[in-house]
Amino acid sequence: MVRAEIITIGDEILYGQILDTNTQWISLELDKLGIKTVRKSSVGDQKDEIVQILQEAQKRADVVFITGGLGPTKDDLTKKILADFFDCTLAYHAQALQDVTEFFAKRGRELSDINRDQALLPAKCTFIPNKQGTAPAMWFDELETIWVSMPGVPFEMKSIMETEVLPRLVNHFKLPVIVHQVVKTVGIGESYLSDLIQDWELQLPAHLKLAYLPSLGIVKLRLTGFGDSAENLHQQISEAFAQVMPLIKSYVFGYEKDELADVVGKLLVSKHATLSVAESCTGGYLASQFTQHAGCSDYFLGGVLAYANDVKMSQLGVSAQILSNDGAVSEACIRAMATGVRDLTGSVYSLATSGIAGPAGGTPEKPVGTIWIALAHPTGVITRKLTLGGTRVQNIHLTSLTAINLLRRFLLNDLAE
Q1: CATH number attached to the domain at 260-411
Q2: 2-172 maps to CATH 3.10.290.10
Q3: Residues 286-308: pLDDT tens digits?
Q4: What is the value of pTM for the model shown?
Q5: Domain spanning 177-255 has what CATH number?
Q6: In what order do the strands lie in the sheet with 218-227?
Q7: Would you say 85 and 143 are in contact if contact means Cβ atoms under 8 Å apart?
Q8: Is 34 strand, coil or helix?
Q9: By the 8 A CB rule, do 297 and 275 touch?
Q10: I need a labelling partner for 166 at 20 to 30 A (CA). Which of 122, 187, 414, 416 fits?
Q11: How confident is the model at residue 415 (pLDDT cuts 50, 70, 90)?
């Protein structure tokens, strides 16, 4: 196994002023090649600390990726530190100087001394061009380790990795074959899912490894196979998932990059059906789960954001009696909201939400996290009461997710009313 370490350099990352997306992207790309990331580190613009991390990385990694610190200003220290670290001098690189000169000429700008110094590179490095910016990348084969130093600007780094670095890694290392497949589940917690499939998991062959990847409301099951043939691994992983599918079929909504609302939208299109929504506590979040996907206009008609009771009455036909006797957070109200928006838009199906998302507004009878959802369909209305315990944002997300999943299971005839 080829081991990698990723180091990001810059005070702005440690201060939280810039979100580090580089390490995640690099890790994903390395994983596709069968290179295992063993450590990720961030360090500020201090020479001693950078040198210490480089020394530590050399002891545990076969290839070290460094992003940041290659700009033209005085706080950009990476090139000088690497030159010292590898015991060499900085010198102007002919191709790098030509590239930076042309970069400014094409933009009608004069090449200043500080920008000319972008072509100063450690003598022991292999020059890697940067087609998107002025700071070239550098490849070192030193201390029995490969070192790759790249700009911290994400689109520049990605371009360099894709066009130059990744092909070089494939040629340099003998890489294993690693295959991942992901199944996505909804409506079941990680621990319950683990209990459900534990016998299957224990019987997996040694070269197939299972990982649980939970997020709010969704748990991904990832099988990773290690071997010599990608084709064989894909087949073996598919067969393994097929064996467990009877146990988890009700919870599985998709694979790899599938998103729940998009999957449900495609189900609606396949049935030539349409959808509308009536939202109170979710405040438009439910609708946005559908409208963020291209093609939603084929099935999504619209919705009503009925936060106030007056809007529930005037737009959705919720009666004053229901609001007075049962309240807005009630089964009676959510039924009326779902049927009201369905009648208003003429949709085949509708979803409705009403509840107390928090952090305030709860009562002993209806504490924070009390939510009602409903699905109206051509022959009736299905309701569910949720008792959630998260933050406001979490409760809104889980409410929307649960409502969408309610529709999914109904469309698949996998729901007992």
Answers
A1: 3.90.950.20
A2: no
A3: 999 999 999 999 999 999 999 99
A4: 0.79
A5: 3.30.70.2860
A6: 208-215, 218-227, 177-186, 252-255
A7: no
A8: coil
A9: no
A10: 122
A11: confident
